TrEMBL record:
Residues 49-213 form the Calcineurin-like phosphoesterase domain. One of its GO terms (molecular function) is UDP-2,3-diacylglucosamine hydrolase activity. This is Calcineurin-like phosphoesterase domain-containing protein. GO terms for biological process: lipid A biosynthetic process. Pfam families: Metallophos.
Length: 288
């Protein structure tokens, strides 16, 4: 083999190594997304409200705590009015949630930092999760609870439910629809939206995770695996339903293997607006 052939094989080996390493590197490549959530009839005092969504941290497994801390810093740079943490805080093998909760300690927002558990939190120990979350006064446990906050003249209801599969989710704690102008629901699993009734529950927006956006996505075929029951509806991003809207985040951490492919970890900062949705190109009509 001559010198040119040797150099060529070295370059090919380096390229193959880089390709093999990429999914592990993408799993650490956080992306801040800023979706606008168009709400028909949004109270004007809620225009521009920013909700930071962090979910599926899975700390202690393939997700290092420094990545959780970086996700917090990126979220705080966006100056959110409210922060939602929607479950799967830690890997199944951990003995305590304290390390990941300590990594989240820099989170603050005028309307509060609120949390609900996910299926992996139940696996580690839901009583431990509630106890350790409860020791942190800056963090509110919204499991099957709701609180109402005034934003100007608007009544913002912030509610949460237990995990869809492993817990006992309930919306019974919601106040009457006449007592709230906008209802935000924290639910680990986006499937929970299918249990929200149009009139009685009147949920305006569900924020969730659970799917990891598929974690590994292939060109033209999408997610390799989606754990959502309604996987044809909920994978990532915004989904409009006749009775609500759902935002499913790709999450910060990883499950099973510490890799991602065409599915970067996400810090989502949602902004509410009453403006109409832009017309789709070629649609020939304005969206209502």
């Amino acid at each position: 083999m001559n010198q040119n052939d040797t150099a060529r094989w070295i370059r090919l080996g380096a390229a193959a190594g880089a390709i093999g390493a990429y999914p592990f590197l993408e799993a650490l490549w956080l992306q801040v997304t800023r979706p606008r959530i168009h709400i028909r009839g949004l109270h004007p005092d809620l225009e521009g409200l920013r909700i930071a969504l962090l979910t599926d941290l899975h700390a202690g497994g393939g997700t290092p705590l420094w990545l959780v801390r970086r996700a917090c810093r990126l979220a705080m740079r966006e100056e959110p009015h409210l922060i939602a943490l929607t479950g799967d805080f830690a890997d199944d093998a951990v003995e305590s949630f304290d390390p990941v909760l300590d990594a989240l300690a820099g989170l603050r927002a005028p309307l509060g930092v609120w949390a609900v558990p996910g299926n992996h939190d139940h696996t580690v120990g839901i009583d431990r999760w509630r106890e350790e979350v409860g020791r942190r006064p800056w963090l509110g446990d919204l499991t099957n609870r709701s609180v109402t906050r005034r934003v100007g003249r608007a009544r913002l209801c912030i509610a949460g439910v237990d995990d869809y599969s492993y817990g006992t989710p309930s919306l019974d704690a919601l106040p009457s629809p006449a007592e709230r102008d906008f209802t935000l629901l924290l639910a680990h699993d986006p499937d929970q939206a299918e249990k929200a009734r149009r009139v009685a529950d009147a949920v305006s927006l569900v924020v969730s995770g659970h799917t990891h956006g598929g974690q590994v996505r292939l060109p033209f075929s999408g997610a390799v695996l989606n754990p959502a029951e309604f996987d044809d509806l909920y994978e990532q991003g915004v989904r409009r339903r006749p009775w609500t809207q759902v935002y499913t985040s790709r999450g910060v951490g990883t499950g099973h293997l510490p890799v991602r492919l065409f599915c970067r970890p996400e810090v989502a900062v949602l902004q509410l607006t009453g403006a109409p949705r832009p017309a789709r190109r070629g649609a020939g009509a304005v969206n209502r």
